[in-house]
From TrEMBL:
SUPFAM superfamilies: HAD-like (SSF56784). Keywords: Hydrolase. PANTHER family: PTHR47478, PYRIMIDINE 5'-NUCLEOTIDASE YJJG. The keyword Hydrolase applies. Coiled coil: none annotated. The keyword Hydrolase applies. It comes from the Bacteria. InterPro entries: HAD-like_sf, HAD-SF_hydro_IA, HAD_sf, PGP-like_dom2, Pyrimidine_5'-ntase_YjjG. This is HAD family hydrolase. One of its GO terms (molecular function) is hydrolase activity.
Length: 243
């Protein structure tokens, strides 16, 4: 049975409800800068396509996360011919999407319990600036160690090299850790690449097909608390029986 020493958390849509924050930010961004040049549905659809394309390039190692925001809004500006400056779009979106106290399901209740029992690290493909703002909004500036951002390291999930600072700092092996994240393409694949157990935070209850087999699947972080308590009880029983 599992006896984890370290929990490694993704941030966006695992702890910080970025999907919600982003939807609010896009509505405000559209109203301020794009409302007179296009329909909202067209704006949102185009933004999502552009954003998805650049994040795929980040995961593939083609560009770095720190480049994404300027590239994304440069293309969006050119698409709709708005007169807004790219730097203004970047700053407005950053503030509106990264400063809401937006929690994912069960995270606010679960984290105090988990950080008391385990070493908890944070591993994000986002930029240091954006992700620190989100941690600040949630009051989580001191809850994780170490905190690793891909733009500082120069590699992104699913590249398994991104785990090395955590493993080295905490002196643990991949088998000692559990990665918790929402993405099957970056988080789960990263865990597979290094031989680490993965907990899929599937808050939206997405159906998937194929041969995927995350170690754990949850819809709320409180489910992880209950799972780990049961796992620890089993480990304790096995140790008692072996004496």
């Amino acid at each position: 049975m599992e006896d984890y020493q370290c929990l490694i958390f993704d941030l966006d849509d695992t702890l910080y409800n970025f999907s919600y924050a982003q939807s609010i930010a896009l509505e405000k961004l559209y109203a301020r800068y794009f409302g007179d040049v296009c329909r909202y549905d067209d704006f949102k659809e185009r933004y999502q396509a552009i954003n998805r394309s650049y994040w795929q390039q980040v995961e593939a190692g083609v560009i770095r996360a720190g480049q994404l925001s300027v590239l994304r809004f440069t293309e969006l500006k050119e698409c709709f011919k708005t007169t807004a400056l790219v730097k203004d779009l970047v700053e407005f979106y950053h503030h509106e999407s990264c400063t809401l106290p937006a929690w994912c399901q069960g995270a606010e209740q679960a984290l105090p319990l988990l950080t008391k029992q385990f070493s908890c690290a944070l591993l994000s493909n986002g930029t240091r600036r954006d992700q620190l703002a989100k941690l600040q909004a949630l009051g989580l500036m001191d809850d994780f160690y170490p905190v690793i951002f891909s733009d500082e390291l120069g590699v992104s999930k699913p590249n398994s090299d991104i785990f090395q600072p955590i493993l080295n700092t905490l002196n643990v092996q991949p088998k000692d850790c559990l990665l918790i994240g929402d993405s099957l393409t970056s988080d789960y694949q990263a865990a597979l690449n290094i031989g680490m157990d993965f907990c899929w935070f599937n808050e939206k209850k997405v159906k998937y097909s194929g041969e995927l087999s995350p170690k754990i699947e949850i819809n709320s972080l409180m489910e992880l608390v209950r799972y780990l308590r049961m796992a620890q009880a089993t480990v304790d029983d096995e140790r008692l029986q072996s004496k």
